[in-house]
Structures are given as structure tokens and as C-alpha cells.
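Researcher: Here's my situation. A collaborator sent me these components and asked whether they could plausibly form a single complex. I don't have experimental data yet, so a predicted model of the whole assembly would be a useful starting point for our discussion.
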Amino acid sequence: MADTDPTTAPDPTGPPALSVDVPTLTAILDGPHAEVRRMVRELLPTYAGVLEDAETMDRDAFRERVKDVVLEIADSGAAAMGFPQEYGGGGDIGASIAAFETLALGDLSVLVKVGVQFGLFGGAILQLGTQRHHDAYLSDIVSGRLLGCFAMTETGHGSNVQALGTTATYDAATAEFVITTPTEAAGKDYIGNAARHGRTAVVFAQLEVAGEQHGVHALVVPIRGDDGQPLPGVRIEDDGPKMGLNGVDNGRIWFDPAGTVRVPRENLLNRFADVTEDGVYTSEIESSGRRFFTMLGTLVQGRVSVGAAGVSAAKVALTIAVRYGLQRRQFETGTGEEGEEQLLLDYGLHQRRLLPRLARTYAMHSAQQVLAAHLHDVFSGVTTDEESRRLLESRAAGTKALSTWLATDVIQECREACGGAGYLSVNRFAALKADTDVFTTFEGDNHVLLQLVGKGLLTDYASDFSDLDQLGMVRFVAGLAVETVVERTRVHKLFEQIRDALPGGGDSWDTDSGLLDPSYHVAMYRFREEHLIAGVARRLKRGVDADMNPGEVFSRVQDHVIAAARAHVERLVLEAFVDQVAAAQQDPAVDEDTRLALNALCDLHALSGIEADRAWFMEHGRLTTQRAKAITREVGDLCRRIRPIAGDLVDAFAVPTELLRAPALITPETGPEIVA
Amino acid sequence: MADTDPTTAPDPTGPPALSVDVPTLTAILDGPHAEVRRMVRELLPTYAGVLEDAETMDRDAFRERVKDVVLEIADSGAAAMGFPQEYGGGGDIGASIAAFETLALGDLSVLVKVGVQFGLFGGAILQLGTQRHHDAYLSDIVSGRLLGCFAMTETGHGSNVQALGTTATYDAATAEFVITTPTEAAGKDYIGNAARHGRTAVVFAQLEVAGEQHGVHALVVPIRGDDGQPLPGVRIEDDGPKMGLNGVDNGRIWFDPAGTVRVPRENLLNRFADVTEDGVYTSEIESSGRRFFTMLGTLVQGRVSVGAAGVSAAKVALTIAVRYGLQRRQFETGTGEEGEEQLLLDYGLHQRRLLPRLARTYAMHSAQQVLAAHLHDVFSGVTTDEESRRLLESRAAGTKALSTWLATDVIQECREACGGAGYLSVNRFAALKADTDVFTTFEGDNHVLLQLVGKGLLTDYASDFSDLDQLGMVRFVAGLAVETVVERTRVHKLFEQIRDALPGGGDSWDTDSGLLDPSYHVAMYRFREEHLIAGVARRLKRGVDADMNPGEVFSRVQDHVIAAARAHVERLVLEAFVDQVAAAQQDPAVDEDTRLALNALCDLHALSGIEADRAWFMEHGRLTTQRAKAITREVGDLCRRIRPIAGDLVDAFAVPTELLRAPALITPETGPEIVA
């Protein structure tokens, strides 16, 4: 809190009052898949009752209810838009992300069960399997006739999947793989669909052929019979009640260590590696690490989807909290009629709590759309180069981390902004908090994901970057000149370009630019990114030069690596939003008022981001204390400017009213009537 | 993230390795009421099963279970230690806070129901009533024979209680009060014990006598008959499922607007005001606002208790997360044996996530102890002056805000630090998150509470400060010279004193002091506080001078007021911890190792607090960028120093193992055994 001074009277020559056209803004947010989004928005109210069932049903009944809804959604076609048409899918990956993102406005157990069945289980068969697997399974998966599991995580290994313990040993005598769980901690854990509905699992296991280890591979393993009972040699345990998502039947799976669980050779998902009948291992990718990360890379849609769901959940929370702030009055302040209390959203602090988060949610929405388009292009073969694929993986990891942290933060603040009412389950905050909580750690722990992003930045996505473990990465970077690292990131070059575009040309761009110039915002975000990456490289190098153990060196710079990665993703998010806003300025379908509103939102997002990290910018000579205070003042001004359109801005999210649940929280009080 | 450089090799002449004696540290934490704490810690495992019942029982059954446990706790004497001995209580307010704080290590529905019955309901009868009420109710309340409600909050008015709508109109003809709920929104809401178990309520209502309004007063109103059914004219509704605390039966209460609910004149809790039989209102306190806040002030124990519970919940979360970090290994880093993965807590980032929060929890513990002692002194008549009482109210409000936000923050971070395992209900995070969530908004919304603290700071607790509404406060402050405000806060004088004690004497204390000098830490916290208060005063004055509407002026400086209040409470917290650590240095029962460890914890708390707000210190000329970077480096160093004793530091919290629930999460993995 800088003691800047927004208490002077408003400037009559100040910026014009804002207004927006809600349908126009919704159309901008909906983007290229507006039709799909509309379809899902129309579908969702049909199942709005699930939100209540989550509270009232016992766990068993709720799991069945959620399964039934998932099957109905499958029937509607909304769940499998990304699968090839010949198997009943929609053949459109971009559409499938848009559909999933929109489904996330509703009950999240339903969403996650859709994700488990169609994204994880179906996605693994589609991406890691070949024609024979597609023909055998995909139609049944798309229709929901075959429910399945994605059995990767183990009790002992979540983040470090490469080290998991389950084994698949090829037995050439019978042309079968023997699946075993060698230790209790190698049991598959937290597996959706495992506790109850899954008949088949894609199991990730260490492949051993003729006594040789080939790393982690995926196989199709039946786990339940037609009677719903575990097959012989398969032990299944329920994960029990969870913080949230209790409509999803997570469980544990162990395969008999004595080796009684066997699957035919053909069950190996063999897109990237195969075993011949007589037991010869073949793969076009030599490094087992790189092979594994190539496999994982094909499953990137999961991360894109979780991030999208996080943003949708934040939109629901903001819709409720902003509408509440626009009808709830508390304390008389003398600004309104005599005896009238003030609206919550007319308090400066309330604006400060909600509006920068609203702006950031718009920004993350843009970032998710850019990411989804990128995913679509790579997986539809529009772009085929390896670099584009690696950038996609990095972008998906980083965006997932920021989107899911956004959800946690926004939901918490919105819930607190609704006071006691926010605590009742009849509003959506209880379920939103509990259900989204796991988003920050599943499909990759956020810190581990940012570490991955950082590794990619430091090594310029060297062809084998994901294969480098932490030691390898430290040694790799230590072997480079720091300048090389900076050069490699290419941020440097981009930064030079932007500097040319800014006033001051040379070194004074950061003091001469207008605070509301998007080029200034982007330049600041880029400067931070570049500087942090170079700093990490320097520290890694220095540590190794001082003969420290690389593991210890890494441990010490780890928070710096994460900061660099975060700065990188923040820059991508800002650029996505700036680009979307710029596109709207060119779009004849967008009216002038809506353009101005988008500009203000983008400014608020960018400046509140700089404000939050202004210590760093000051420490690194890119922000004077005077300018820092001016930014704080400007953020307050932008909040006040945006306040009158806050309701419209959440209305543009187009969350179906039926999904908001809490009528009393969001509709104006109806006066002094009493029902005795 | 500053790119400071802790990657140089460790200094062999650096500070000595730390160790602590756990029982000694527990004794320090336990303080003067060690015996009570021990008694409750021994009691709690008896009811550990409630933690599981919260998941497995349906709501009705769980409410009954919780009620039964509360009655058993009442029998043990642990619930009513603050009541006079003649009614079966313990006659020791300090002990009652210590008992409540320790109960908070267990199930929080049990805790909150204890709080509703003994703290809120019983406390209101004790503090607002007189002998006749004490004799009539207290024995039954203490024993649990009479369960009751504290019916203050209404649907329409939570934070602004002075404006609530329920009325109590004196009818001199019958010598009765008529209790009515004039509008639907004036219904009492979120009232614990209302939905099911409460027979009687202390109802807060606008008192009207002979056509004249006298503001909010409290009356004893029976709401249920012996058959458990609402009495005629009383309508009760269940608040339904909540995010957490589902063992507490919250509900809504309306009193027939036609006026059929009547209570005898004697039911007015008449310690501060009374009505004679023939309808004359009398009170020793003239201002109705001041009278109301005097009443509220007597209920301050509730806020102290909630804050204490927040700190206890944070301790439980830290105990689980730190122990998990000490047994969970993930990724090989080359620092250990070949093939051995690294412990989570050996990662720099993991230390950064958990250890400053651990230090802050110790600091908040100290602050709560100082607050509890202050409460004890005021309510046991040890100190009787008005100022001490006002300072207590302010301190209780501010500490409650910081303690409950600490809980929200620590629990979230600890849960994320336990990955997927943290999401299962078998660990405690699900319940901890859900149950503590409401702490930030009940017993006063945290932001509203900090506003109250800010108001007190600005007006130097002017005798009628709490009676000043926002407009009044703005006008009051605007009428003062800014220097007067600063002078009045007395922070200025204290600050001068500390400056004299620091090297540099005059203006260079902030650059010449050692980073680990507690006087430096306190001086920094004080400087921030003083500067923020003066800044608010200046802005209020300027706004009023510019002829802005005082409500608008307040709205604009509101975040600044909150920041000033927060800085004030942060300073109190730091001083409490510094004092506790200093006392340990003098205490012959404390060994040298434990002293050193406490010093390091206090340094970590103080410096990570400065680090988090270093932007502000730089903006206000009290921190160079070089020194800011040095602080960041020092925080990292302190984390590494404290890492080896992290397990002991959480063990010293002495959370009974039975209450941690998650054996797999916190005990070392048991090797390669398998249960087939």
C-alpha cells in the first residue's frame, strides 16, 4: 500500500465512463467455437440438479448419479468431440476443449469423470495406441459402453512418474506381458473410475523384455469382469471420501506380485515402441527418457483441459461475488440517500479485492484460448514441427499452473467477499473450493510443472530437454555461457524489438512510456523474464564452478527457476490478452464502448501484475519508487472506472443462471415483505 | 524473487547448527496454563473418532454425535473454565482460552459448538446479564442442561449489527417485551444451536420503550419447548449443509411480526441498561452507540477464541506437512545415496513454502498468548482502566484477523505440499480447510475488524471511537492536524526510542543495523506503522479539504486504512514473539540450543515479513535494493538453518498423534513389503 493520493476530486477531463455490450463481449470470449459453447450452456441446466445431489446423496448414490450424467453427456456428443468421427467422435480438438471448458461451469465431479473417461483413458488409447487399439476400443469408449482408468500415478510416485514401480515383463513363451506390483507403495493410487466403474485400465509400467529394462510404457489391462468384480490377481481399494469430487470413484489398484495377471502382447500401446512376438524390443526413439516424455507429450490435452476448467470455476465464483457486491448493502456512508447503506462494490477495498481478479480471469481466458488453438493445430496436423510441439507442452504446463492457482485464489477471495452467506452449501463456494482444490496438484503438481517450464527455458527446449533430470539440467546449463542462455531464450531479441517501439528508444523506455501503454506492459514483463532466466543461469554456473554438488545447487536456485518460469508464463498470458484486445480494436463487429472496456481491463490486469511484483522491478532498476506509487494509484483509478461495468463483465461469462444456485445472494433484495 | 546468490559454498565459519529440546519448547509454548493444556491434550484422543464420524455419518447423526461429545466435554470441566465457580465453572479466564485453543486441535464442529454454547450464549448471559440471570441460567448452561443460541446476526445485517431489524417493544400494560421480526431479511441467520438443539436464545433487538428507540439490546427469549418444537410465534429454518462444521446446527429464527412472542421484563439482560416496570428506560451510558459497543466489548472473548483456534488449526496442518516432507522422497538429485530420491524438505522451494509459515505460526502463537493474558487481566479485574479495555478490543480484533488468515494460508499451502495424498479425507486437510474457512468471516469479517482497528489508531481510541461511524471518523480525523494523529498514536515516541537504541543513532539506523538484530526488525515494523497511519490521516484531511463527500473519501482510503491496521497488528505480533524469545534467553530452564533456535525462528518470521512487503519499504526510503536482496538471501539461509530442526519444531506443538489421522502421510515408508 503506497500512500499515493487518489483522494483528490475526480478530474472532469478524465477518461470517459465505460460501458459494454454484453452479447458482443460474450461473442469475443466464445471465440471460434461459439456454437459448441452455446450447445453445452444449453445442455448444462438439464443437469443442474447434480449440484444439489452432491450434498444430499450418499457417496455411493452420488457416484451412480454422476456416472449416469456422464453417460447422458456422452450421448449428447459433448464429451468426445476430439475423437475421430469414424469412432463416433466429433473430429475437432479445439471444439473438445471448448466443450470441456464450458462443462466446467457445472458440477465438477461430472466434469472430472468426463475427463477421466474421455480425456485420460480414451486419450491414452487414441494417442499411445495404434489402429488395432482404436478399432478395438474407441467406439465403446466414445459411447460410454466401456468405462476405464488411466493408471499412472502410484502411492510412492506422483510427480516422478519415470520412477514408478509397476512392471510389465514380456513372456515370450506365451507372448504375454506379466503385470505386477512389486511393492505396496507401487500400487496405483488416486485412479479415477478405479473404485467402481472402470472395466479396463491403461496401466503405466516399467517394461522388461528379455531381462532388459526399457522404461515406462502403457498397456491395456482389464481389471474388472462383467460382474463388476475385480479380475483374479487384481486387488482394488477405494480411496474413500475426498475433500471434493466425491462423485468420482477414485481408487487403488495392485497387480499380483506373483505374476498371475497377464495380457496379450497386442495390449501394449505400441505407437512409440513395440515388442515382437519372439521378444525383441523396438522403438524409433532411442533414449528411454525421451521416449517416455514423447508419450507423455501426446497426453498434453489433459493439462490444457484442467487449466480451462480452473478458469471456468473462477468465472462462476466471480459471477456470484460481483453480483452479490452489486446488491448487498452494508453501513451507511452518506454517499446515497439518507438511511441507505452503501453497496459493497462501492467500497474501494471491495473493488480492489474483486476487480483485478476479474481482469486477470479475462487474461487467463485469453491465454487458454491461445493454448487451445495451439493444441488444436499440433494435434490436427496443422503445424507439425517438433519445436511447436515442445512449446505447446511448456505452455500447457505453465498455463495449467497459473490457471489453477487463479481458481484457488479467486474462489477463496470471492467466498470471503460473500461473508457468512458464502459459507452455506446452497451457494456454490463450498463445492467450488473443495472440487477445484486438487487442480493445483493433479495432472502435474504446479511447482513441478513450473520447474519443467524453467528447464525448457534454460535449455532452449534442447531436443532432449525433458529427458534431462535436474542434475543433467544443472550440468547442461553450467556448460553454457550465460549469454548463450539469454540468447537462446530469444526473449532478448523480442525485448530489443519492443524497446525500439517505445519512447525513449534506448534505456529510458521504462520511465518515458505511458502507464497505460500496452507496449510498456509487455516490455516490463519481458524484462523480468529475461533477467530472471539469465540470473538462474549465472547462479547455476557459479554453483558448479564452486564445486558444489549439482543437486544442492539446484535445490538452492529452485525458487529462482520457478520465478523465471512464472515470469515467462505471465508474459505469455499478458501477450495473449493484449493480442485479443488488439484484435477487438480491428473487429468491425465490436463497438467502440466494448473496445474501451477491454482496454481498461487489460490495463488493470497488466498494471496490477506489475504492482504485485513491484519490489522486484525496483530491485532491478526498472521502476522508480515514484512510478511504483503512480502504478498503485492507477490500479485504484482503473478499479473505479471498471466498477460501473463489473456486472456486465461477469454477465458476459454467460454462466447459466441455473448453475449459480444461490438466488438470494445475487438478486436484489425484495424489500420489506415478510412470509410469516 | 531477487537473483541474489546463495549458491556459493557454505561458509565454514557460519552460524552453528541448530538443535532444540522438544519438551522445553513445548513448555515455553504451553506457558502459564500448561496443566490445562495437558489435560485437554489427554482428553482429545478419547474423541478422535469424531474426525472420522464427520465423514461417515449423515448430517443429523453427526449433529447428535457432536452434541453428545460437547456434553461429555462439559462434564470434564474443560468447556466452562471461564465461568464463576459458584455456577460450576473454573473461575479462570486465561485457563478457559488455553483449553479452547487446545480443543481446537481436534474436530472443529465440536469446538465451534462448545464456542456457541459456552462462549457466545453463556458468555452473553454472564457479561450482559445480572445476578438474576446468572442465578437463573448459568448452572444449567455450564452443565449443558440448557443449550442455547446467540442470536445476533441477521440475513440482512452481518457486519453492521447496529442496524439490525429485530425489535423488542416494551408493553407496560403487561410488563413484557414483544419480540418481532419486521421483515424477512431481519430473520436471525447462521445461528449455531438454532436448527436443532437450542432451547433458549439471547436475542439482539432494537429496543423500543414508550415509542422511543434506544438501540440494540439483548434479551433472553425461549425458542423451543420441552418437546423440541419451536414455541408459538417462533419460526425456525435449518441453514442446511455448509462448507464445513456440519456438526453444528446453524439455522434461522423469525419472531412473529404480529407480536405474539412475548417475554417478561426481567428477560432483558440489564447490566448496561434497564426498563422500569412502568416503562422508563435507564442506562448509565448515554450514547446509544457507545452503549452498544460497550456491550459488544464484553463479548471480546469470542474473537480471542477464534484467533486461538486458527493458530491451532495451522499447527495441525504444519505438523502433517512437515512430517510428510521429512519422509516423502521424490526425484533423485545426486545429493544422497545412488538411486535414492531426495526428501521433499531438502528442496529449497519446499523449505521456502513451509518454514516461514512455521515461524509465523510460532509468532502468532506468542501474539495469542499476550492477547489471552490481556483478556484475563481485564476480565478478572487485574486491570480496570478504560484504555486497557479499548486496547484489548482493538488487539483482539486485529489478532483475530491475522490468525484466521494465517490458518487459511497455512492450511492451503500445507495441503498442496502433500500432493494428491493431501486431497483424501483420511488426512485432515479436507476438514481443516472446510471447517476453518468461516473463521475469516465470523465473529466479525476480517476486513471490517481491521477497519475497526484502523479507526482506533486514527482516533487514538477516543473515548467514543467505536461509536463513530465512517463518516464521523473521517470528519473527526479531518478536524485534527496530521501531527496530532501521529503524536496520538504514540508509535512515534516508541519509534524515537528504538531509533536511539540502534546503530547509526539518527537517520541511518535502517542501513547500519545488522539484519538479525531484533531491534532493527521492530524498528522497521514500527516505521511502517507510523508512516501508514500518518498517510491515512493526510489523505482523509486532503479529501475533506477538497470538499469531497466523506463517504467517498473513506471509500478511497479504505485500503490504506486496512494496510495501516494490518501494519499495526503485525508490529504487535512481532513484539510479542520478540518478547517471548527474549524471556527464554533469561529463563534458566531453557537450554542454549533452544534459545538459539528460537532466535532463528524469530529472525525468519521478522525478515520474511519485511521481505514480503519490501516494495513498501523501498518506496518509503527505508530499504535499499541491495539490502532488500540481502534480506531475501538471509531468509533462504535461515530456512536452510532451520530445516534440520523442522521436525522438532512441529513436534513441540504436541498435537496428539491420534488427531493427525494420516499414518501413511507422516511415518516413514516401510520398505518393499507387500500385502497381497
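Model: Some features of this prediction you could bring to your collaborator: Chain A touches chain B through 122 residues (CB under 8 Å). The CA atoms of residues 225 and 231 of chain A lie 6 Å apart.
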